[in-house]
Amino acid sequence: MSEEKSNSMNKYQLKKLIKKLEGIRGRNTELVSLYIPAGYDMSKISDFVTSEASEAESIKSKHTRKNVQGALEKIARKVSEEHETPENGVVLFAGNVSETEGRPDIQIWEVHPPQTIESRRYRCDKEFVLEPLKQMIVDDRVYGLIVLDKNEAAIGYLQGSSIKTEYKMSSEVPGKTRAGGQSAQRFARIRKQMLKTFMKDINDNAKTAFLEKAREGKLLGILVGGPGWTKDKFVDEYMHQELKDELIDVKSLNYSGEEALEELVEKAEESLQDASAVKEKNLVESFFENLKEENGKSEYGLKQVIKAMDMGAVDTVLISEDFNHYRATYICGNEHEKEVYEEEAKISENVKCDECGEQMDLEQMTDIVDIMDEKAEQMGSSLELISTDHEQGRRLYNMGGIAAILRYRIR
Question: Which SMART domains does the UniProt entry name for this protein (predicted)?
Answer without folding.
Answer: eRF1_1 (SM01194)
